[in-house]
What does this fold into?
Amino acid sequence: MNKTIGLLLTLLCVPAMPLLAVAGDFDGSKPLVCTVIDVSECIMGEGCKAVAPDEINLPRYLWVNVGQKMIQDKKTGDDTRKSRIESLKQVDGKLILQGAEQGREGVRDGYGWTIAIMEDTGQMVLTASGDLAAVAAFGACTPY
It folds into this structure.
C-alpha cells in the first residue's frame, strides 16, 4: 500500500518538476528575450486601436538583462537601441521594470515605460505613455 502511494505521488510530481525548474527563469536572475505579440495604441480624443509594432517604432523583440539594468532591441550591434532599467521590483509574482526615455532632441516625444513579467509563466505586459498617448503591448519572455 505504501509503495503504491509512493509510486502515485512520484508519477504525479514528476511532470511538475520542469515547471519548478523554469519558475525561477523569470525572476530577473537570467537574461530574457521578450517577444511583442499584440499592441494597442491609444491617443486622447481618438481612442485605442490595434497596431503592428513597427507602425509605432516598437521592436518586435526586447532583450532584457536585469543584471546590467538594460533593455535593448537587439542582442548586439552598433545600432542597438538601449533603455536603462531605472526601477526594479518584485510584486505579487511579477517582475516590474520601469524607465523613461528623453526621445529625439528638439522633439517633445519623451515617454515613461513599465514592463511586468509574470514570474511563473514569462508572460509580459508593456505599457508606455507620453504626451496624450499610450501604448499597451502583450507578449512572452524566455531565457537566453
